[in-house]
Amino acid sequence: MNMMLTMLINVSLASLLIMIAFWLPQLNIYTEKASPYECGFDPLGSARLPFSMKFFLVAITFLLFDLEIALLLPLPWASQSINLKTTLTMALALISLLAASLAYEWTEEGLEWNE
Length: 115
What we know:
By secondary structure, the chain is an all-alpha fold. The protein has helices at 2-23, 31-34, 53-70, 75-78, 84-107. The longest helix is centred in the last third of the chain and has 24 residues, at 84-107. The model has no long low-confidence stretch (mean pLDDT 79).
């Protein structure tokens, strides 16, 4: 009995909310709000806008450095291994590689945004 009453209340409340949502008129329909484009984009123009190649190169550089740093995440667990000297040597080699690649990007002006 109690479960039937709960189901009846839930179904009637859901039906009431659905009917209210369909019966209420849409008062504020603006064409700009109904447009799929936001922030002043022209919906009649081309959807393929060019982007700077410099942005692409910085994004690729960020991804590479991010992946290399992700290799350092298991280092605290690896430091508990039996051969600590090998673990620390490999970590130092990876950090040195990161520093060398950052220095190379810096000297080649890969991180500069000015054109």
